[in-house]
Amino acid sequence: MSSATQGFANRNDDCSSDLADLAGGSDVGKKRSVNQDHFLIGNLKRLMSIEATNVSHDQCDRLCGNTTGQLMVVADGMGGHAGGELASSTAIESGVRYVLDMMHWFLKLSPDHEEEFEDELSDCLQSIQKTILGSSKGELKGLGTTFTMAYIVWPKMYVVHAGDSRCYLHRDGELKQVTTDHTLAQQLVDDGALTPQEAESSRWQHVLWNCVGGGDKTVRPEVTRVLLEPQDVVLLCTDGVTGMVDDDQIAAVLSSGINSQAVVGELIERANAAGGSDNITAVVGQFNADTTSKPLQMSDDEIHFQPALRDTDLEN
């Protein structure tokens, strides 16, 4: 990886999680001078900051509870005069602040609260949209970004998404794209006007009809719910990966048995070897939950048809 690459792996400390091996990386690629991609990985947990005490706690100034969830986020910015770089970083910062400050803290999600939680994830993207539009002035007018965030409360994953970055799930040797590409080319495929193969070379392949900012006052959040299983691998990536590395290669890397940081490095290396025509960003989570634990049950027919909300059955 080049010096432009940044990575993150779980720290081996009292506040780390045994549930998942999480890692991420971002590289400027071979053709661009500026990296407009950003990513974030975080463990969600109860945290108390100790202000004063005479009780010894290994000289630690904070107490961490068990990890209750994970956040995985990627954003691919667009816009000149550093607009894309600002848009993607602002989107992630704004999204994380919304999760921490505005959303209800769903430590244990019951079926009665799932739709409310999904609505709040949709509201999160709307809040990011307002923040980006507030920054879209002068030389930064029209700045925009994709945004894909996975919020995981084991064993459920909720993905809120706009743009053409992707969330994949790898399970039992099969790679499944969880998100939809919000491009005109994919829309033509959905309408039957193009085949998936034709879309790959279409002039509409990278033209977005939905993103955060980008001069459009409206963003249309896509929210997807997935029931995870032990040994699942989740990948979030920008089109700098998917434009250079096909799904078969991605599946091979995700099933290789190497740790998440090595998976990220391999995906970036393959994308650069294929030309590195765009910034390259990947975030990987390998979930090592106890296979004897009983997952929460979710009804197979619990499908929502609201335009901004999709529920994906990964068994079909």
For CATH, the homologous superfamily is named as: PPM-type phosphatase domain
Average of the residue pLDDT scores: 84
In total, how many beta strands? 13
Question: What would the CATH topology be?
Answer: Phosphatase 2c, domain 1
Which H/E pattern describes the elements?
EEEEHHEEEEEHHEEEHHHE
- What's the architecture in CATH terms? 4-Layer Sandwich
The largest pleated sheet is described as: 7 strands, antiparallel
**Rg over C-alpha atoms, rounded to the nearest angstrom:** 19 Å
Please state the overall shape, judged from the principal axes of the Cα atoms. Answer: globular
Please identify the structural class as seen in this structure. Answer: alpha+beta
What's the number of structural domains?
1
Question: Low-confidence segments, ≥5 residues, pLDDT <50?
Answer: 1-5, 7-16, 291-311
